[in-house]
Write a structure and sequence with these properties.
35% helix; 24% strand; five-stranded mixed sheet; alpha+beta
Length: 198
């Protein structure tokens, strides 16, 4: 091949590569939303646990919801739910042995009785907080809104709750005790848990 032909071939090849590379560094189209877009932050602070719980409810994410609670299998305290007087009157036998397993089952069942576009949110108003190095007590007035497909059952509960949290050896906080109080004419959260427990 003559030097002139070699130069022409190289020019043709380089222009072809340049054309093929066009757009190589252009921004990609965004990926559609997926599970990975859900919000869950490492709970290195008690208030992050509360934020994660609110996000899990808003996103109807069972795995994220359960991560907010202690897990005795990994060395945490057993999870304890203390129902409102209203909930205890109706579901006493159910709440007697309530654990993380029952809490997960309730929330899983609740998410199956709704649609992806239904409103689900937890509004909290902080009342008191007591923080120590490895434990915390947080008290809130709450309104849980969870639109569901059960005929005649309300989509809202409200009342007062108290969370007791612990910090693990890996500096992750979780809820180990949840106490519910009926303080309004709405159903308390305990009634939602009892209703959707199975």
């Amino acid at each position: 091949m003559t030097p002139a032909r070699r130069a022409a071939a190289l020019l043709l090849l380089s222009s072809g590569l340049a054309g093929a590379g066009c757009g190589l560094f252009d921004p990609r189209n965004p990926e559609p939303p997926s599970q990975s877009s859900q919000t869950f932050l490492p709970a290195t602070d008690p208030f992050i646990v509360i934020s994660n719980l609110q996000s899990a409810i808003a996103q109807k994410s069972v795995p994220n919801y359960v991560q907010c609670l202690t897990d005795p299998v990994s060395g945490g305290r057993p999870f304890l739910f203390i129902p409102s007087s209203e909930g205890n009157a109706v579901y006493a036998s159910l709440f007697r042995n309530w654990s993380t397993i029952e809490e997960q089952a309730y929330f899983q069942n609740l998410t199956t009785k709704t649609t992806t576009t239904s409103i689900s949110k937890l509004d909290l108003t902080e009342k008191t907080s007591s923080l120590a190095a490895d434990s915390a007590i947080l008290e809130y007035d709450y309104t849980l809104t969870f639109e569901n497909t059960v005929a005649g059952f309300p989509s809202r509960s409200s009342g007062n709750l108290q969370f007791a949290l612990q910090r693990s050896s890996t500096n992750i906080w979780t809820i180990y005790r949840w106490t519910d109080f009926k303080t309004t004419s709405d159903l308390s959260w305990s009634m939602f848990k009892g209703k959707f427990s199975n």
